[in-house]
Structure formats: structure tokens, C-alpha cells
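Weekly structure sync, notes
Attendees: PL (lead), two postdocs, one rotation student
Agenda item 3: pending single-chain targets
PL asked that the sequence for the first pending target be pasted directly into the notes so everyone works from the same version. It is reproduced below exactly as submitted, 385 residues in total.
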Amino acid sequence: MFMLEKALEGSRRYWIWLGCLSGVIAVGFVAFVHERQVGLAVTGLSRDVPWGLYIAQFVFCVGLGASALVVVLPYYLHDWKAFAKIAVLGEILGMVAVIMAMLFIFVSMGQPTRVLNVLLYPHPSSLIFWDLIVLSTYVLLNAIITVTLVSSEHNDVPPPSWVRLVVLLSLPWAVGIHTVTAFLFSGLAGRSYWMSPLLAPRFLISAFTSGPALLVVLLLLLRRLGVFDAGEEAIRKLAVTVAYCMVINVFFMLMEAFTVFYSRIPEHVEHLQYLLFGLHGQDQFVPWTWLAAVLAVVALLLLVVPACRQNPRLLTTGCACAFASLWLDKGLLLMVGGFTPNPLGAIARYTPTLSEWTVVFGIWALGALMITVFYKITITVREMR
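Predicted structure, written out during the meeting:
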């Protein structure tokens, strides 16, 4: 409780920001209650497209959660002192992202009480059951690490020795949460767009790009606001990580495209053709696909060139472009591309409704609020020292 009190102290700008987020959360909650009463008929989902925007956001947020590994591993295993100030911030980002991911699963089930079926009737062959286990455990591990480290700083004592063991346990768990998520898709034999052994590596490398990219943007924003300075070396090393991971991510995507178009297997070609050029007159997602590609190219140019990466404004733009490109890829296009066309070759048009977008914005606002509060507590404790 003594640390939560720190979140109740802030400037007028801080409270306006929290008020705006609370308003978005309230509107999203109203939309969720309406969906629960009426059913998923108010969404754009159908028999042919049972997974939509909610599950896509779940996949993207799981990646953000796994990205904490990029900050925690160098600091705790390789003793990179540059990451000393941001290790806890990375843990918080990972914890909040996984909580958001679990909320997206919660709302996607229509009747949230169905979650109890996973717990009351577990089965070893159910990937949803294992996904729930690894996600819940990862949140618990990150919460233990975060609270312990911040409490130690508040009391001005070194962290207990056992926390290092918890950190080491969380590292393979971070890989596991996104690997199991990839298995949910790649194990579906009727969905050739997802049935690839490269899907899990793609998920992981995109996670190690989007998470650090968002963290860089947050650190630069905090420094610009005069709230917290992580240090030039920490931001520079994170930017290099984002650059290398983005290169690998684009390489993986190009290899997928080459394999699909060179083999010319119709069931595989049609999915990418639908996203890139349209199919049978349906091309609603073509502009978004090419926008993701353009953003990826811009991100590569701004992040790979050292001179651009050392400029704060260009670095912010590059990281924002990388984040937006990966959000479009994993947070939207991955889902519609896998379901379109269906195994019978038919195209079921899917368009997220206003209700879906409202709920999504509400959960993202809740995540932003949690990050704001937890960052406020952590930074305030450090200022007191």
C-alpha cells in the first residue's frame, strides 16, 4: 500500500491523462457489457471467421509480453549495467501486456464464464489450457520480480538472492508463452497460411522487435517530459536490438513469400494473393498490407543507418513505424489472411465492427493506464533514493 500511494501524487497533466484513459476504458466496458447481453452477433465474426480482432490483439500482446526477455536477459545474465535502470520497466511492460492478452481472450469468448470450462475440464491435448497455464504463470513471475525489486529500492536494500532464480525461470517462460501461442495456429491442418514451422520463430522475432520498439518510444517520451532519463547507452543498445530483430523479421517474411509463390501451391498462394493483390474482387485488406510493408521499409532505413538511429526524432519515428507495421501484421492481417479463403476456397468478408474496435481501445487504454501507474510508482521510488 505504501507504494500505491505514490500513484496518487502527480501533476495536473498526469491526472488529465489518467482521466482520458479512464473515459476510454468506461466506453469500452459499456461496449463489452452490450456484447455480453446481445452476443457476438454485434461483431463481424461468422462461421467462416470465428477468430477476429480480439484474437489478433491477443497474439500481438503476448508478443509484447515475451519481449521483456530482451531487457532482462542482458542485465541479469550478462550484467549489462546500461540496462540497470530499465530492467524493471521492461518487466512491467511484459506483465501488463500479458494481462491485456488474457483480457482479449476473455472478451472473445462471448460468455466469459466459458473460461471456467478450461479450468474445470483440463485436457493435455488442449493448447488453450496450456496457453492459459503459461500466461498466468508468466504474469505471476513478473509480478513477483517487479514488486520485489521496487520494494528493495524503496527500502534502499539489495534485492534478495532468490529473486535471481525467479528471473532465470521467467526467461524460458517468456519464450514459451509465444511458442505455445504459435502452436495454436500452426497446428491447424486446414489453415495453410499458418501451418508453417517458421511461424513460432516469426512470432518470437516480431515480439523481440515490437516490445523493445515500444519501450524505446516510452523512454524517449519520459525523457522529453523530464520525468525519467534511462541514459543514452541503454536507449542506444535497445535501438540496435530493434534494428537487428527487424531485419530478421523482414527476412523471415520474405522467405515465407518466396516459398509460397515459387511453389505455386494454390492453397498457399491464395492467402497471400488475397492480402497483397486481392482475390475474386475482394481487396479490402490490400491497402493495409502494403501500408505494413511500407512502414517496415521506413523502419529499416531509420533503424539500420547509425546516423538516423542516433537522432532522437528519427529513432522515435523508426521505432513507431516498426511497432505499427508489426501491429498491422500480427494484430490484424495474420488473422484475416489465415481464414481467407476458407478450406473450400470461398471468401467470407470480415470487417471489425465499431463494437469490436471500442472494446479493443478500452483494453489498450486499460493497459496504458496500468503502465502509467506502475511506471509512476517505480520512478517516484527512485527519485526518493
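Discussion points:
- The chain is about 75% helix and 0% strand.
- The chain has a mean pLDDT of 89.
Action: rotation student to compare against the earlier draft before next sync.
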